[in-house]
Structure formats: C-alpha cells, structure tokens
Design brief:
Structural class: alpha+beta
Order of helices and strands: EHEEEEEH
CATH class: Alpha Beta
Number of domains: 1
Radius of gyration: 16 Å
CATH architecture: Roll
Shape: elongated
Number of strands: 6
Largest sheet: 6 strands, antiparallel
Helix content: 10-25%
Length: about 130
C-alpha cells in the first residue's frame, strides 16, 4: 500500500474544529495523485492523463482534527476491462487509527473520443495486476 503524509490547513476546518467532510475529498484526491505519480514514476500531465474518477464514497470513522498527523494510504484492489477500484484510508500517523475510508472507481478513457477504453497491459502490471 502506498502512503503519503497529508498537511491539514486552516481552510480544511469546519465550525466544529474538524476537517470538513468535503475537504477530506480533496485530501483523498491528493493521495490519489501522489499514488499515480509514484506508480508511473513521473509527474502527471493531468490534461492528458487517461484515468478519471467516476465514483467516490467516504465513511467517516473518527474526526480528523487540525493537529492530527495524518497519512493517506492508497491501493488499487480490483480491476476490470476499463476500470479499477481503489481503497484509501486517512490514518493517524501516531496511533495508526483509521479516521476515514474512501472507496472509488477509476475509469481509463480515450481522451480524444471521451469514451472508456481498455486498461493497457503495462498499466495493469504497474497497478499490481498481471494476467
């Protein structure tokens, strides 16, 4: 599982002094982008990148507070022909408690046609799936 540190900003907070639920989506986006750059061993040109987020769901287990040291853990866990599923966790880096769980679906698209396309074999291998 890939892990990256997350910096909490003041603008992430809600009136209850928690990291806002919507802001947590941004934290998972950051973790996902770091995962892809690590996986493909390159800075991603997001205007040309062939993968797009099509579904996301979050389960909030414990509040995330401003002084928490957190990490985002990311992994792909199920692959189809044109899409794969990802699982991510925001975890307290000190206690290892899971604070929020994210499940998402990523689709490989042909940017010129704006249609789903089959995931290239090389990408399946990098994602950890080989057939």
């Amino acid at each position: 599982m890939f892990s990256c540190p997350i910096q909490i900003r003041m603008s992430d907070l809600d009136p209850f002094d928690h990291v806002n639920n919507g802001a947590q989506c941004n934290l998972f986006d950051y973790g996902r982008s770091q995962y892809f750059e690590h996986l493909f061993n390159n800075k991603i040109d997001w205007m040309k990148f062939s993968y797009v987020l099509v579904h996301v769901e979050l389960d909030f287990k414990k509040p995330v507070k401003i002084h928490d040291q957190i990490v985002c853990e990311t992994e792909a866990y199920e692959i189809g022909h044109t899409s794969f599923k990802m699982r991510q966790y925001l975890k307290n880096a000190v206690t290892n408690d899971i604070l929020t769980v994210c499940h998402s679906v990523i689709v490989c698209i042909d940017r010129a046609k704006n249609l789903p396309m089959e995931i290239p074999e090389a990408d399946k291998f990098m994602l950890g799936f080989s057939f």
